[in-house]
Fold this protein.
Amino acid sequence: MPDLRRTLIWLADQLFPAACPLCRCTFPAGWRDPFCANCQAGFKPLPPAHCPRCALPFQAVNSSSHLCGRCSLLRPPFSKVHCVGLYDLALRKAIHQFKFNQRVGLDRPLAILLDRVIADDGQFDLIIPLPLHPRRLRQRSYNQSLLLAKEIGKLRGLPVASRLLLKQRDTLPQQGLSARDREMNLRSAFGMSRCLSGERILLVDDVMTTGATASAASRVLLQNGAGEVQVAVVGRAPSESPQSVR
Ligand SMILES: [Zn+2]
Ligand SMILES: [Zn+2]
């Protein structure tokens, strides 16, 4: 029986060779990574020098443990940010395909990369996706953060709470707003359907730009009983850029 199974798997590989979910090239035999070598080479990891709290990359070459200016002024409510890499080049392309072009099949490959950077760094009780307002959800037909959260939940064997944190007010796009206007824009944007009791939360989103959205959501989670919030995003914007949305 095992021989038959092996033969069937071999036959399926010959008939339907696995392909890179981003560039569609056929994987070489025995390939185990979620993307091809070319695409992965285009994913720029976070540099060693970055803010330990919000993962903002620094210009300095050497690693550093000091907080960035923004976190020094006002400590964010989340305690750490995990990210696959810089929101740039191939990773930006992958996120755009996933988020705006209905390429929902990128959920698992991106979640695998995100799960690798989280690794054993942190124990969590619950995964919560950044919610979309119902009107935005109807427009896009899916919440990319929920798809990512579900896959990370499967990989880590953790429950995903998809209706706990709610986007109760539709907000303006964050891009182009000043830091103060971002704060105002997000005021009362999030709510909770019930309270927590000390759970350690992994808050999942696709991109972090200034961290204002993740901060607003984390604050609501902590005010409603979460014990700790860490954030997991695929891409971390090096600074505010026109294409960034959060
Ligand atoms: Zn590829
Ligand atoms: Zn920071």
Summary: The domain at 49-236 is CATH 3.40.50.2020 (Rossmann fold). Residues 20, 22-23, 25, 35-36, 38-39 surround zinc ion (ligand 1) (CB under 6 Å). The CA atoms of residues 110 and 129 lie 15 Å apart.
